[in-house]
Amino acid sequence: MSFTLLDPHSTSNAALPTIEPLDPARLASAKTAYTTRFVCRLIAGDPHGYGLMTGDHVVPQAGDVVLARVLKLGQHRGIQRPDGRKATLFEGDEILVAYGDRYAPDQFEAEVPNDLGPTQLVAGGGLAGTVVSAHAKMGAATKIEPLGLLTDAGGTLTLRRCAPYKAVAPEDPKILRRVGKPLVIGVLGTSMSSGKTTTVAAIVRGLSKAGFQVAAGKVTGTGAGGDPLLFHDSGASRTLDFTDFGYGSTYRLEHVEIRALLVSLIDELARTGPDVIVVEVADGLLQRETARLVKDPLFKQQVDKIVFAAAEALGATAGQNLLAAHRMAPVAISGLLTASPLAMREAAAALDVPVLDKDELAGAQVADLLLPGHAKPGMSKSPLPLSRVNPTSSRPRKCLDCGIQCTIPLPARLPSDAVAR
User: Fold this and answer.
1) Which string of DSSP letters, residue by residue, matches 325-362?
2) Which residues pair with 222 in a beta bridge?
3) The whole model's pTM is what?
4) pLDDT average, residue stretch 235-260
5) Strand partners of residue 121
6) Options 3.40.50.300, 2.60.120.330, 3.40.50.11270, 3.40.50.150; which CATH number does 183-387 get?
7) pLDDT in tens, 159-215
8) Which residues are CB-contacts of 5 (< 8 A; sequence separation ≥ 6)?
């Protein structure tokens, strides 16, 4: 038996999609994705009462949950399950994913299609969309056939409806205004794959070794379980990302939504009382959502210190200059460039902040740089390696925040014959 319901996304009474009841056993057998994990929890509690919305007038929106069939395997031959495990896909499999836009210069640029026609799996975390462009290294995207939007008695199932947390505006009274907010360290970078996530994980590890309770989160990006799982494994007392607030992807979100995500994620992480919160902002400083966020005065109000991840020395220099222009100069540089001792020396020669690799960030002594004066009793006060910080190059500089003249260590400008680490 089928019945119809007014399309919740349509403003026209003429658009009446069809909703077919969905067999609970069929729904339970679908391969679910990381992006749809909170929807899956509801289904696991009771798989009855769900349907599939179809029809020529149905226009999917970002965040709509869709049951789809794998037509032809391509770049993504697996899907990340709610627990983070990668499940192998086979042609003919039915999968439960979410529509979403994607920004990934190293992979796919994709957008939500305007109908329920055949489309593609554009992210392994479970994102359906139409590929607009792709990096030359990428194979053809896996083709999928949407079978219908998932519905229940309340209408279309969306990620935001099922998410455990809601992003609220910074001005909303629900946001805590507590004295003594944990110090927040933001990790930004030059681009996708510049080493931001690895940098966050290393900082979490180092500060945890130093005796601090550290929470970690990811404000923007494309939904995948690998990043929060890495933060957790590195010692984070609690982890959250934008998917916990009902977003499969943050690409093309309005700036007001990005602002709300930043403040709400930090506020929620702060509720468990960590000493420090480390947050990652995805992609690079020139990406639209990231650029708007960094320019917003709210970002500086929420984020106390920045560590910048770059893929090469020139990117590190450009990033430092861009951030300094917004009065947010980073306290350290890290990222993919630190895989090369030569690139590290080049960056150190051009910058006036320490250039640290992941092992140095993961050491307890990093607390001396990121949290000066806040070291836990009994922890080592060993200084950062002299190859990164030269105590003889200290000179008075004016603090950008308070205008006070202070003396801070500047990195050594290594001679060309310096011995690589």
Assistant:
1) HTT---SEEESGGGG-HHHHHHHHHH-SS-B--HHHHT
2) 249
3) 0.85
4) 97
5) 128, 142
6) 3.40.50.300
7) 999 999 999 988 776 665 555 679 999 999 999 999 999 999 999 999 999 999 999
8) 16, 17, 19, 53, 151, 155
